[in-house]
Design goal:
This protein is α+β, with helices and mostly antiparallel strands and 312 residues long. The protein contains 5 helices and 13 strands.
């Protein structure tokens, strides 16, 4: 832990700054028709590569900063679309989180009431199927709730569908990030306020309230894309991209302890505030979340990515 731009905030002020979630909702599972995850191709974790870092494959843009708007979900969505489109087409684009903040409807109040007040990545993917996604230069980020500007929507890419992985399934998430690319995930992030470097293995609690992007994983003998980042000698980790700017953490990233199928196992608990994270209005009042910081609780990715005709 260390001193950073959030050090002067109380924990409550910090949570209000980044989360932007509605606190009055119960939750229910995905109200939309996600594609079923194909687990038939998955292999045992020990047969996967010992480490994966998608930043080394030119499919990840630099870390971004959501500012004081609860738009983490929009950044996680846009970033995962960027990576998916790059893997599918060979073209890495900088896409527009503000399009989701201003234009994506959220009638069931999933993860919040929309815009800076929160939503979910899989809603963002569902919206992209019909609307496409615009470049950041066409719809610049303002970090505010604003009326949708149709004139700024100039789609450069689209997708055909999206998948939600089985909840709290360690093997499924490992296979997905190893073989398919960066994955949109969620976590309990309040204790990350003063994170500076290293593998975080503290007690985050189970109030899943933040959307981020999983870009890889590593272990005790892993190397890192950042030459000045020191690795812990004994802990395996998830490599997570945040949206609090490059001055936070390890140049915008955090490594979260990954226990998997070791004797320690992944911790689990009950999230009784699902409306803070990925729940929708009118559903169950709690659900089980697993992994350090609840990192296994909700994982999704787009499918069928393609450039729109005319995109250079």
């Amino acid at each position: 832990m260390g001193v950073n731009k959030f050090a002067a905030m109380t924990a409550a002020e910090f949570k209000s700054y980044y989360a932007g979630r509605s606190k009055s909702m119960a939750a229910m599972r995905d109200p939309l028709a996600a594609e079923p995850a194909d687990l038939s191709t998955h292999v045992a974790v020990e047969d996967l590569p010992s480490q994966v870092d998608w930043r080394t494959k030119n499919v990840v843009t630099p870390a971004k900063d959501q500012g004081g708007c609860g738009s983490c979900w929009a950044f996680s969505t846009a970033e995962t679309l960027e990576s998916h489109i790059a893997i599918q087409t060979g073209k890495l684009l900088k896409l527009a989180p503000q399009q989701f903040v201003s234009c994506m409807p959220n009638p069931l109040q999933c993860g919040g009431t929309g815009g800076c007040e929160g939503a979910t990545q899989w809603l963002g993917f569902n919206y992209t199927i019909g609307a496409g996604i615009t470049l950041e230069t066409s719809y610049p980020y303002t970090g505010t709730d604003s009326k949708c500007s149709a004139s700024k929507i100039k789609p450069v890419a689209t997708i055909k569908g999206y998948v939600r992985l089985p909840t709290n399934n360690y093997t499924a998430l490992m296979n997905a990030v190893a073989n398919l690319g960066p994955i949109a995930i969620s976590a309990a992030a309040e204790p990350w306020q003063l994170y500076e470097s290293g593998v975080y293995h503290g007690n985050c609690g189970v109030d899943v309230d933040h959307a981020i992007q999983l870009v890889g994983y590593g272990g005790p003998n892993a190397t890192t894309a950042a030459a000045d980042v020191k690795l812990d000698a004994s802990l395996s980790y998830w490599l997570v991209r945040n949206s609090w700017g490059e001055s936070w953490g390890e140049k915008g990233y955090i490594r979260i302890a990954r226990y998997g199928q070791t004797t320690a196992g992944e911790p689990c608990g009950t999230d009784d505030k699902p409306g803070d994270g990925t729940g929708c209005k009118g559903g169950p009042s709690s659900f089980s979340v697993c992994g350090v910081c609840g990192i296994l609780s909700d994982s999704s990715y787009p499918t069928g990515g393609a450039l729109v005709n005319g995109t250079m």
